[in-house]
Every structure is written in C-alpha cells, then in structure tokens.
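Justification of resources, computational component.

The compute hours requested in this renewal are based largely on the per-chain cost of generating structure records like the one below. Each record pairs the submitted sequence with a full structure-token output. That output is archived, and it is also reused by downstream analysis tasks.
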Amino acid sequence: MKRYLLAALAVIILLYPATASAAPIKHCARPAMSSVYHLTARKFTCNEARAIARNYVATGKAHMLYETTNYNSLSGGYADVRLHDRYGWVVRFWLAQD
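The structure output for this chain reads:
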C-alpha cells in the first residue's frame, strides 16, 4: 500500500507543471530634459525608475540598493546602463555620451 502511495505521489509531482515567472518589464517615458533614453524597469514603478536614472546622471553613482552597474559603450555615443540587485529589481537605460 505504501508503495502505491509513493508511486501516485511521484506521478503527481512529475505531471504538475513547474511554473516560474519574472516580473514584467515596464517601458517608461524618459525623464524630461535628460540624456536618458529607452528607460525600462522591473519591479520599480516608472516614477521610481525615472528618479533613479536622474540620480545616476547627476551623481554618476548607482543608488545604494544596487549591487552593480554594467556600463557598456554602444555605437552612436550611447552607454547601456543596468542597475540591479539580487532580488530582481532592475532599472535599465541608455545614457547619451557628450
């Protein structure tokens, strides 16, 4: 009897679909009078993402909540900036290089 219960439990576990979902990516409008383009956010509101991008442009530093800033130069005078932490909070934007 115990063997049948274990077999039934194994079948249920194998047939149950494993689902994982990420937070949706929000495409936000760029901050007014800024060198920020293509601003996107995950888990942040667009207002928070714009404030974080403006702070990054003003200070050149990531907010204290973020672990790393990936600063990769792109063709056309833009840099791709990605601010994130290990919990999935992400702000990403292009920064025009003067």
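The CA atoms of residues 66 and 85 lie 5 Å apart. The chain has a mean pLDDT of 80.
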